[in-house]
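Support request from a user on the community tier.

User writes: "When I paste my structure tokens into the form, the page sometimes reloads and wipes my input. The last time it worked, I copied everything first. Here is what I submitted, just in case something in the input itself triggers the reload:"
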């Protein structure tokens, strides 16, 4: 499996913005973590031309290919891996992480901080379920979130 990882220049770009990358390229650079494949990056970014953008990032020295093997028993999508598993603390943690990560992805790292804090503080499934509607509303405030809201809600409910 081929994945993409940030180079030192890519890490520097995230903090300094010296390469003057466009929004699509920057989004892909942020999402590239050494574990996500082209298909996953395309899906997460919503960029139908992700392959070309990734190639530009690679040509610019911001990313490089890596061969990544998933850990034993793991799948690339942890939330999907836990779907159908018996409930418990691990599922609750995965649901919390999923909700917080999707808020950061679709709304930005500093938006909805109050909601992120309340999700993080949830210790029981009932508390997390009580935040579901607010989470879904926040996700659908963005164009990309509206497009993926049904899929994201379904995936989250499988874990919860």
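"...and here is what came back when it finally went through:"
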């Amino acid at each position: 499996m081929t994945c993409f990882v940030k180079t030192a220049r890519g890490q520097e770009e995230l903090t300094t913005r010296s390469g003057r990358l466009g929004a699509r390229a920057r989004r892909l650079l942020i999402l590239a973590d050494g574990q996500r494949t082209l298909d996953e990056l395309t899906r997460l970014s919503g960029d139908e031309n992700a392959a070309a953008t990734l190639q530009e990032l690679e040509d610019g020295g911001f990313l490089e290919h890596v061969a990544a093997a998933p850990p034993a028993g793991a799948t690339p999508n942890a939330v999907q891996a836990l779907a159908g598993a018996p409930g418990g603390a691990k599922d609750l943690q995965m649901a919390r992480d999923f909700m917080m990560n999707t808020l950061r992805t679709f709304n930005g790292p500093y938006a909805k901080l109050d909601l992120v804090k309340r999700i993080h503080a949830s210790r029981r499934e009932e508390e997390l379920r009580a935040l579901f509607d607010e989470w879904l509303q926040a996700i659908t405030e963005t164009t990309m979130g509206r497009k993926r809201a049904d899929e994201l809600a379904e995936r989250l409910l499988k874990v919860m």
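Agent notes: The reload is a front-end session timeout and is unrelated to the input. The two ends are 30 Å apart (CA to CA). The chain has a mean pLDDT of 80. Escalated to web team.
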